[in-house]
Design goal:
By secondary structure, the protein is an all-alpha fold. It has helices spanning 5-44, 50-73, 84-91, 110-123, 128-153, 160-163, 167-178, 182-185, 187-213, 216-251, 258-330, 336-473, 478-522, 530-552, 557-573, 576-583, 594-598, 604-607; strands at 526-527, 608-609. A two-stranded antiparallel ribbon has the order 1-2.
Length: 614
């Protein structure tokens, strides 16, 4: 960690004071040594007696010890001759210490732990159907995030920004899992439809029993009951469309989750680019440091060898000087001047040796400081590269998590839309069957009401004729026929109202059925429209009634035969095969064909062509 300016200033002052004291100590050692050499020179110019030579030998021995003390005691440890800024300038490094990770930095990985906890919570989501489809992906990334957490624990990386990348994707995954399935949403509605179908079936049974027993009033009441039940059934079936549309609306936002992947890739690309650039710069600086270290080691080896050679040559020079002094003492009288010269040479040599010793010690201290600074910076660079590798691994994991999350969400969205389309088609089929039953029921009731209206008109005409006959003769029964005529008019008005209500219901149902008719047509499902089926049923019923009337009312045979022929014409006009039969009747067969008209069954297969069930 970098020191504050005040702390750095205090450290500089302490270093300068210690360096000053060390310099004084070094000067004291050199002064003692040089004073002794001056004394040796003084001895060179004194009388050259045996005592003087002994003193000189003692001084030489003492001087040798002083030289050893200087060489062993000279230190420059407190001089800050090499620091990190000088290293950056010397090696041409790109990164300063503030851009690198420090061993004292603490990793920030709690957001990765929170991300893993979020995935574990999604795995325990209440919507089990969607959890099953995404559980493999969730388990995979929980394990991957465990590995990332262990790597981050041994690094100095801050993973906060990386952990924020998949937040939007996980939120979209949670929202996707919160969407209820259409099947579950329609379960309650389907139960009500089943109950309604049972009520309709029961009403049909009661109506059939009433018709068999001749209870026409009960049968008519069951018609209205069944109409009410079928209307409620259609309403329940229409509710399915509302439920399916609501589910589709909830599922619609997940069609646009691709922008999450694009945004996450953009963020991870920026993070990966920053980490890769930092790693490349660190690797470049580390390579430069290694090259500088190699050069420094070579220079150190050369300087050490050079000093060693110098030390050896200096020892040889001093020993040679002593040898020559011994020879000079033997020739003292002849070589006094030479001895003085040699003494001077010795003084200069010792002085030069002290200077070289001082210079070499300074160089060693600078080299040691260089090794310490370059070692610390090398460790910081290697640590930064390691953290970059960890960051890139975590970023790749998060990026893969986002991509697979979005892929699973899109798959779930597509499957949900497909299920909704299939379920809508099934609901349209149910709508067709419900509409068919209600439309046929209303059509049968309308047919009966129209026939009842025709019967009432005939009765009114009969009552009016009877009334006119009674008025002509002042018959007292005129009052009875008049009351009967009024009562018939009242019943006719009520029947007309009921018939009008039935027509409005049938028109409204036909209008409501158009979307279902279009949907089935687009799906390629062929079916017989209930209106055509009702027409065939009415034709069949009229043909059967005419046969009964022909059998019971022979005088009206001609009129009935005409009506029957008209019915045949209307029926065969709708069928090419019927037209051909009218044009080419079978040989030997009579013109009268009641059995052919009465045999007009409406099979279930003609109600819905191309579908197995409704």
């Amino acid at each position: 960690m970098a020191n504050s300016p005040s702390q750095q200033l205090q450290l500089d002052e302490v270093g300068l004071e210690a360096s000053r004291k060390q310099k004084i100590r070094n000067l004291q050692l050199k002064t003692i040594c040089l004073e002794n050499e001056e004394y040796v020179q003084e001895l060179h110019v004194t009388d050259h007696s045996q005592t003087q030579k002994a003193k000189l030998d003692a001084a030489h021995e003492k001087a040798f010890k002083f030289i050893q003390q200087v060489e062993a005691g000279t230190r420059w440890n407190l001089m800050q001759a090499y620091d990190l800024p000088k290293l950056l300038r010397f090696c041409g490094l790109n990164l300063n210490p503030k851009e690198l990770f420090s061993p004292t930095d603490q990793p920030q990985f709690m957001d990765i732990v929170a991300l893993k906890k979020t995935l574990q919570e999604l795995k325990q989501h209440r919507n089990k159907n969607k959890v099953v489809s995404m559980s493999d992906m969730i388990d995979k990334f929980i394990a991957r995030l465990d590995d990332c957490e262990q790597q981050l624990r041994h690094s100095q990386l801050d993973a906060t920004e990386i952990a924020n990348v998949p937040a939007e994707a996980l939120k979209a995954m949670e929202d996707c899992m919160n969407v209820s399935g259409a099947t579950m949403a329609m379960a309650s509605n389907d139960e009500r439809i089943k109950h309604q179908l049972k009520l309709i079936e029961r009403s049909n049974e009661v109506q059939n029993i009433a018709l068999a027993d001749g209870e026409m009033q009960v049968a008519e009441e069951q018609y209205y009951t069944k109409i009410s039940l079928l209307e409620m059934l259609l309403e329940l079936i229409n509710n399915k469309f509302t439920i399916l549309e609501a589910t589709a609306e909830e599922n619609k936002p997940f069609a646009r989750v691709i922008h999450i992947t694009e945004k996450a890739k953009q963020n991870t690309s920026q993070l990966k680019e920053a980490k890769k650039k930092l790693k490349d710069r660190c690797e470049q600086d580390l390579q430069r440091l290694l090259e500088a270290l190699q050069r420094a080691e070579l220079q150190d080896a050369e300087s050490t060898k050079k000093y060693s050679d110098f030390h050896q040559s200096s020892d040889e020079a001093i020993y040679d000087n002593l040898r020559k002094q011994d020879e000079a003492w033997n020739k003292i009288q002849e070589l006094e001047r030479q001895l003085q010269k040699l003494g001077t040479e010795r003084f200069e040599e010792v002085k030069r040796r002290l200077e070289e010793t001082d210079r070499e010690e300074k160089r060693k201290v600078e080299y040691a400081q260089f090794l310490e600074v370059i070692g610390n910076h090398r460790r910081a660079l290697e640590l930064t590269i390691f953290n970059c590798d960890v960051g890139l691994n975590v970023i790749d994991t998060v990026e893969e998590l986002v991509e697979e999350s979005v892929t699973n969400i899109r798959k779930r969205h597509d499957v949900t839309n497909q299920d909704l389309a299939e379920m809508k088609l099934e609901v349209h089929k149910e709508q067709l069957e419900g509409f068919r039953q209600l439309y046929l029921t209303l059509g049968q009731l309308r047919y009966k009401k129209e026939k009842k209206l025709e019967e009432l008109d005939r009765n009114i005409r009969t009552a009016h004729i009877q009334l006119e006959f009674c008025v002509e003769t002042f018959d007292p029964n005129a009052k009875k026929y008049s009351d009967s005529k009024k009562e018939l008019y009242t019943v006719r008005a009520i029947t007309e109202d009921e018939l009008e209500m039935i027509k409005e219901k049938m028109d409204g149902l036909a209008e409501q059925f158009k979307p279902t008719e279009e949907a089935l047509g687009m799906a390629g499902i062929e079916f017989l429209h209930p209106s055509m089926e009702l027409t065939e049923s009415n034709l069949h019923r009229r043909s059967r009634i005419i046969e009964y009337k022909l059998h019971l009312a022979q005088p009206e045979e001609v009129l009935l035969e005409k009506e029957k022929t008209e019915i045949k014409r209307q029926y065969h006009a709708r069928s090419p095969r019927g037209t051909e039969m009218l044009a080419n009747p079978p040989s030997g067969s009579p013109t009268k064909q009641p059995p052919a008209i009465s045999a007009l069954p409406i099979s279930p297969q003609r109600r819905l062509i191309g579908s197995d069930s409704i």
